[in-house]
Amino acid sequence: MKHLSSIAIVAVLLLANAASAQTVQTNATAGTTSDRAIVDKLREIVTIHQKLAEANERAVQNGKGATDGRYELALAKARLRLARELGLRDEQIAALKDALNVQQHRLEEAKKKAQAGAASPEDVETIRVAVLEAEVKLLRAQNTATRR
């Protein structure tokens, strides 16, 4: 399973950290303000999900971790919430792309399992819906970004 790069995750966290110093200024021009306590908690949530994803990646390499993408998906969603709070459009789109990649991988794995008889067609269709929903979210974010 293709895992998120630790370097990319650290880079996003560093960008979010640097951006939070300008949060009030950036959001003031957008007409909103972020509560520092909320941003700090969202950042902590991202950090925790990052650690969990990294620990799972090590476990997968040892044949014991979860390969269903749950840790990567949780991390992408946490990054999305933080980016939304900070008003960082590019980071929102990056997090949505990561979530879509995880869902696409889940779909490919489900198709393989269904061919082997280890998953039902309904399981495949359920994940297909998740892929479509992720695509819609990404398209909406991209359309909003291009209108501004």
Question: What is the strand and helix layout of this fold?
Answer:
Layout: H1 6-20, H2 23-30, H3 36-61, H4 70-86, H5 89-115, H6 121-147
Descriptive overview:
- The chain is 81% helix and 0% strand.
- The protein starts with 5 loop residues before the first helix and ends with a helix.
- It has one domain (6-147).
- It is flat, with a radius of gyration of 17 Å.
- α1 (6-20) packs antiparallel against α3, α1 (6-20) packs parallel to α4 and α3 packs antiparallel against α4 (70-86).
- The chain is mostly helical and 148 residues long.
- The relative contact order is 0.12.
How many strands in all?
A: 0
The overall pLDDT average reads: 85
Q: Identify the overall geometry.
A: flat
Quickly count the helices.
Answer: 6
Parts with pLDDT < 50 across at least 5 consecutive residues = 1-31
